[in-house]
């Protein structure tokens, strides 16, 4: 759990962050940046002003350079119809939110991997509207059960690197751990791709498990996990989470417009 925040220090940090962003001249109107919006950057970087400013700048540049990742929920219906990505109802004992991605239902003939990244991207945006998520972060679980080798091979190395880099460096979110589970051979393939393309610090956030999930359940209790992950919380389903995303689409548009430079 995150440490308690001192209101006066928070107020001071917000002022310093605004000045730092204004000095970069990367957006058109710093006055529109609300305290709640800026706090996500401070919390993600443990209130280090320079790092928070850098993350804001990188996030704004990402929106300009990689617009295909900034898709709205209504544009990503196909991903959720395929039951690929959801956020679980319960959090970890540490208070972290849990995002699960199940690739087995994905076909690259229907849409490419970037659409799944965009779904994860917009999911994180909505999660960050929760101050508890800003403080405690989240974990990601990638379920490889029934995934074809062809599907994994179609995910290019640069996409793996970009995913890790954006989530760890460019977004104001604490990705505490990433678990790749349910198929040992495919997990090894993912590990090889990752190790070749990410830093040691980034790679250390990944944890690999085969079909024996005993060790995994020691870290994430089975009672909060879906049946597909050896859990007791019922079948994996994206419907409720997609409904939540759609309900927040206007807020997403408003938040992402804050990065506009014109």
List the topology elements.
Elements: H1 7-24, H2 35-44, H3 49-65, H4 77-81, E1 85-87, E2 97-102, H5 113-127, H6 131-136, E3 138-143, H7 149-154, H8 157-170, E4 175-181, H9 184-197, H10 200-203, E5 206-208, H11 214-219, H12 239-247, H13 249-257
Parallel strand pairs: 2-3, 3-4, 4-5
Antiparallel strand pairs: 1-2
Helix pairs in contact: 1-2, 1-3, 2-3
Tell me what the structure shows.
This is Alpha-tocopherol transfer protein-like protein. Pfam families: CRAL_TRIO, CRAL_TRIO_N. Residues 72-237 form the CRAL-TRIO domain. GO terms for molecular function: phosphatidylinositol bisphosphate binding. InterPro entries: CRAL-TRIO_dom, CRAL-TRIO_dom_sf, CRAL/TRIO_N_dom, CRAL/TRIO_N_dom_sf. It is a single chain. The protein has a five-stranded mixed sheet with strand order 1-2-3-4-5. The N and C termini lie far apart (39 Å). By secondary structure, the protein is α/β, with parallel strands linked by helices. It folds into two domains: 7-66, N-terminal domain of phosphatidylinositol transfer protein sec14p (Helicase, Ruva Protein, domain 3); 70-249, Phosphatidylinositol Transfer Protein Sec14p (3-Layer(aba) Sandwich), CATH 3.40.525.10. The mean pLDDT is 89. The protein is built from 13 helices and five strands.
Short description:
This protein is of the alpha/beta class and 262 residues long.
